[in-house]
User: Which sequence fits this backbone?
């Protein structure tokens, strides 16, 4: 049986936040997943983590890479 419960660690024991339907002295295996607040990543952190590979002049010639050759007069 798999049962997921929320609990608080008081320094010595884990105390369930709601009643648990287990008999006293039941042996269980506990997996701990802490719910600490995570610091959100910035756009730059996410972009760098993607390890994207592109030409060095990507930002200068974005329209060319997205839409093909663009004429100087804009037509």
Assistant:
């Amino acid at each position: 049986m798999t049962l997921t419960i929320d609990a608080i660690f008081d320094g010595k024991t884990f105390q369930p936040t709601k009643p648990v339907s287990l008999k006293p002295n039941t042996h269980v295996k506990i997996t701990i997943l802490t719910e600490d607040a995570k610091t959100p990543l910035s756009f730059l952190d996410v972009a760098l983590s993607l390890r994207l590979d592109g030409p060095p002049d990507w930002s200068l010639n974005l329209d060319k890479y997205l839409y093909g050759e663009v004429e100087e007069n804009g037509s």
